[in-house]
Amino acid sequence: MADIAVIFHWGPPVMDPMDLSELMQWRGRAAKRAGADK
């Protein structure tokens, strides 16, 4: 999930243990922080 990595500066070792639902929650937070309209 490149958007999470770019916004939060997290690499694969941080995101690999997360399940899909947790990744999607973080993706939403990354989009909000980046100023994306949803």
TrEMBL record:
InterPro entries: P2_GpE. It holds the Pfam family Phage_P2_GpE. It comes from the Bacteria. This is Tail protein.
